[in-house]
Design a protein that fits this description.
The complex is a heterodimer of chains A (174) and B (73).
Chain A (H helix, E strand, L loop, with lengths): L28 H30 L10 E5 L8 E5 L6 E6 L5 E5 L10 E3 L4 E4 L4 E3 L6 E3 L8 E7 L2 E7 L5
Antiparallel strand pairs in A: 1-10, 2-3, 3-4, 4-9, 5-6, 6-7, 7-8, 9-10
Chain B lengths: L5 H25 L3 H25 L8 H4 L3
Classes of the chains: A alpha+beta (174), B mainly alpha (73).
The complex binds FE2/S2 (inorganic) cluster.
Amino acid sequence: MSDRNNKVPFDEDNYTHNINRNNERMLDRRGFMKTLAGAAGVFAVSTLPWGAVAAKELMGLGDKEYPHQKIADVKDVKVGDSVKFHFPSEHDSAILIRLSENKYVAYQNACTHLRCPVYWVKDEQEMICPCHHGKFDASTGAPTAGPPRRPLPGIKVEVKDDVIYAVRVKRYEA
Amino acid sequence: MKRSYVGVILLAAILMMNIVFTQLVVHQYYYENYGVTLLYAGLNVLLFPVALFIYKKEKNKGGSKGYEERNLS
Ligand code: FES
């Protein structure tokens, strides 16, 4: 053991001389495939939360009735006016529009394109998203122009004793 | 130098399906078709073991051998 390294040339059995670092960082076919498989894993993991929330919703936990929430008094909302409110939670901004004497519509006003707030333009009788000029039909919430493809989620409103209440979020009738 | 592109092509196809399924999951979720959402999410998860399987099977194919393989025999 002790005199082995003194021989010239000594036996090269120490496994250090043959480490070949050339091309170590090159992306070869195998490395590329490893990346692809890893990316598939990332995709798999990233869809899990969506699946979990969908499952929760399927089991009926998401369809609960929210407590009725007062939006405004009837006398404060003129025909053609709109009111902003928050429903069902304070992070879900929504908009109420009085289309005619007795017709109220309300929508969650996060644009279905990229969630910018949609607002009501009285002169054009349309809901407009400022971000990419998406437009929505006020009486149905359906997208009429621009990038959005899905209708705005409607909110059911109820008028009782001259007060407007938000009752629940409507499901899509798909 | 023999080449084997089968694995690469298959894995690329799987990644493509991953992208498509993810897109579908998000869209169907917002359309509130939760059953369909679950289906696509499940498919997306299933694609991962398939990708791993293909990788395991294909990694040693092809002519340009990696370091470990050159030193196997
Ligand atoms: S976010 Fe509304 S149109 Fe793009």
